[in-house]
Write a structure and sequence with these properties.
Length: about 80
């Protein structure tokens, strides 16, 4: 059975609601952080904050990193 994936745009709207402006950045991958990551920064009148979304192997976006390293970026190959 194919899992339904939710778009990043939908998740951002779900978490933040309607925002006037936001800053989207994509930090570079490294051996410490091999996942695809998108950081959404929002400034509101009360405070500024950011939410980080991680791309999982099945194509879904979540606010927590995948449990395992992607096969192509393992630190120690056997």
């Amino acid at each position: 059975m194919r899992q339904q994936t939710t778009s990043l745009r939908y998740l951002v709207h779900d978490w933040l609601g309607a925002v006037e402006s936001m800053r989207v950045s994509r930090p570079a991958r490294s051996q410490r952080m091999p996942w695809r990551v998108v950081r959404i920064e929002v400034a509101r009148s009360s405070a500024a904050f950011a939410i980080v979304f991680f791309r999982h192997g099945d194509g879904s976006w979540c606010i927590y990193p995948p449990a395992t390293f992607p096969p192509a970026t393992r630190l120690f190959r056997t």
